[in-house]
Amino acid sequence: MAFVNTKKMLEDALKNGYAVPAFNICNLESAQAVAEVAGEKNVPVIISVSEGAGKYAGYDYITAIVKTASKHYKNDIALHLDHGKTFEACKAAIDAGFTSVMFDGSALPYEENVKETKRVVEYAHSQAKYVTVEAELGKIIGTEDMIHSDVESFTDPDEAKDFVNRTGVDSLAISIGTAHGVNKSISTPIIQYGVIDSVHEANPNLPLVAHGSSTVPAKWVDLIKKYGGEIKKSQGISEEDIVKMSKTAICKINMDTDLRLAHTAGVRQDLAENPNHFDQRDYNKAGKKNVKEQIAHAFELVMGK
């Protein structure tokens, strides 16, 4: 793999009408799973790390793991900070060697979001190895890791145009009806394709990003419940919407929850069926197998490969 930023990756996706999946990881097994599947398919991929995962594993440890993975295959890989809430968090990821960061100022007043996003962009773009910056406008409902919002507000296209012109961001996460977490709504979320089209029309050269796009597969939820887990409510984005979104100006589709569910299902099943297992390598291998299966399916949905 070539260890790259997301600029050319997402620009090519925009030009050719597809999307690149971004998979959140937090440990060796999940990083290996993403790298191995993407490498075998020879497709570009974005490995994302939340602030919480960065604190858990260490930005420098994660950079070393992903850089090592990039040496084993020929396709492009980007290492991206997901939902950096402060300039300091973004700077820490950049200084650790991340090739892309997201500054999420969506909870801030608009002018403060502009100011802080521009500050991150100026620092990221000043690096010897150009680091790309994603920002967010609008509010995406749901809870995941350190992200929570009870309010949903769709992205305004005119505001997005002003924001992009004033900040110089490389990509923009927009609110279109997706949601973070394992329980996205009581019924299937309704994706606002008109919002995608209008924001794209206002910013025709800008790659757009969909967060909260896990499908929350019933097979993993059912396995977790079967082997003693408790998930009271679960609801994801439909697979049909994932396919449809990938053919719009959405050039990056984020998935986190699906990988967590797949890994947990594998671990629970392995420990239940093999009560003598106490070696982490045994049950983590089972979890990784499921994660690879889920990632391969996601590539089929998002890229048709």
What is the residue-mean pLDDT, rounded to a whole number?
Answer: 91
What letter string, H or E per element, gives the SSE order?
Answer: EHEHEHHEHEHEEEHEEHEHHEHH
Count of alpha/pi helices: 12
The name of the CATH topology is: TIM Barrel
Distance between the termini: 18 Å
The main sheet comes to: 8 strands, parallel, barrel
Q: Order of strands across the biggest sheet?
A: 2-3-4-5-6-9-11-12
Number of domains: 1
Which CATH class applies here?
Alpha Beta
Tell how many strands the DSSP assignment holds: 12
How does the overall form come out from the CA principal axes? globular
Low-confidence stretches: 142-151
CATH superfamily: Aldolase class I
Helix content: 40-55%
Assigned CATH architecture: Alpha-Beta Barrel
- The value of Rg in angstroms is 18 Å
Backbone structural class: alpha/beta
Describe this structure in words.
- This protein is an alpha/beta fold.
- It has one domain: Aldolase class I (TIM Barrel), CATH 3.20.20.
- Helices cover 48% and strands 18% of the residues.
- It is built from twelve helices and twelve strands.
- The strands form two sheets. The chain has an eight-stranded parallel beta barrel, surrounded by nine helices. It has a three-stranded mixed β-sheet with strand order 8-7-10, with no helix packed on it.
- Helix 2 (28-41) packs across helix 12 (280-303) and helix 9 (218-226) packs parallel to helix 11.
- The longest helix has 24 residues, at 280-303.
- It is globular, with a radius of gyration of 18 Å.
- The model is unreliable at 142-151 (pLDDT under 50).
